[in-house]
Amino acid sequence: MARMTTWQEFAEQAPELAKTARAQLEAAKHHVLATLRRDGSPRVSCTEVGWRGPDLTLGSMPGSRKALDLRRDPRFALHANPGDGLMASPDVKIAGQAVEVTGDEQHAWVEEVSPPSEDSHLFRLEVTEVTTTGVSDDQTHLVIQHWTPAEGARTFKRR
């Protein structure tokens, strides 16, 4: 199993990459979340993300398929909304494991954000990798930045 880290730990290790990724996540309300169904096949769902203290989080309606998927198998992949398709900003992908937040912390979140139901799920997203893909300033190649807790941030160029 890959080592996981909090968003804050990621941001401390790769501040520029974290700044880019967060900007893309905050630029649009809806993103695409991939989870695993009971039979192991992928499921994609629309989701919203946010920050609660040092953590990247997502919420969902009570009993939603994505919440049930994450309870059963916490692995996820998150693709930030790519915007208008012009690639003016890098494409952002994040993978890791979702940890359900319950008890007093979940109740405090409900009080703070007022989701449609007090029984809404809250998940803290533990990060195992972050990747951005953008176009170079001179438009001649792709610039891929990839981070993992074990390897840190690396940059690749592809023509």
TrEMBL record:
Task: Keyword check for Oxidoreductase, yes or no.
Answer: yes
Where's the Pyridoxamine 5'-phosphate oxidase N-terminal domain?
Answer: 19-133
Cellular component per GO, a single term? cytosol
Pfam families noted in UniProt? PNPOx_N
Highest taxon of source: Bacteria
Q: Which GO terms describe its molecular function?
A: coenzyme F420 binding; oxidoreductase activity, acting on the CH-CH group of donors
- Keyword flag Ion transport: no
Q: Which UniProt keywords apply?
A: Oxidoreductase
Annotated InterPro entries: F420H2_bilvrd_red/Heme_oxyg, Pyridox_Oxase_N, Split_barrel_FMN-bd
Protein name, per record:
Pyridoxamine 5'-phosphate oxidase
Record the organism. Saccharopolyspora spinosa
